Amino acid sequence: MTAGQPQYPTGLGTSDATTIRLLGRDLANDLMGQVGFGELAFWLAAQRRPSAGEVRLFETVLVALADHGFTPTAIVARLTLLSAPESIQGAMAAGLLGGGSRFLGVTEDTGRFLDEVITAAGDPLPAATEEWDALAGKALAERKATKRFVPGLGHPVHKERDPRTPVIIRVAREEGVYGPHLALFEALGRMAPEILGRTLPLNGAGVCGAALADLRLPAELLRGFALLARAAGLLGHLAEELRRPIAADIYHSVDRNARYVAGDAVG
Predict the structure, then answer these.
(1) Containing domain of residue 83, as a range?
(2) Do 118 and 211 fall within a single domain?
(3) Is the pLDDT of residue 267 over 60?
């Protein structure tokens, strides 16, 4: 490096004429064929190598969030491919841009909410189930009083139980990475009927946020992990669209059933 030139520090990847280094390792000799993609994604974001148990829980979360059928994110990806068949990247990007407060964003929202409650509670954290229930009840009551939404509760399809939730909790316990965020999340489910007056299932996106928070991943990145998972699902949708296209049918169905409605007159 020439003296006086600006330097741009990074703890991720660098390369020269003969080698590529990633996370301080030789990519070809130390990582390729030896580190799985899920482990690498965790390592890149957290800047620490995860344990085998952490990898298993992290990859369980990625699988849980990969695809949910014909969601708006999948539909818009397929329609974008129909409009611009030369742009796989555009179709993928279109689908990822739909990851917001209703789809995928719940993972981040739940993780942040749980972390806020735990941080405000301070040390020592609850030890017994009854103590977690008391903390959850207080948090729910505060949300109810201020008419704020409680992220992670309820699901438009799974009215009684989201099938992903118990699996993630079980894996976390099996691997010894069940922590305070999952404990509080389960307590919210137990206390919701009493405080909110109705029984709501703990949804999959919410439990994913709790699990990621227990893995000590930054709250600011939780939606990013959901998007990482959904990228695989979107790629699957685009591959299926190429094999068995339906986007044109969706477009034609909407177009042929459009009905003009007079708007307010503009003066």
Answers:
(1) 23-98+230-243
(2) yes
(3) no
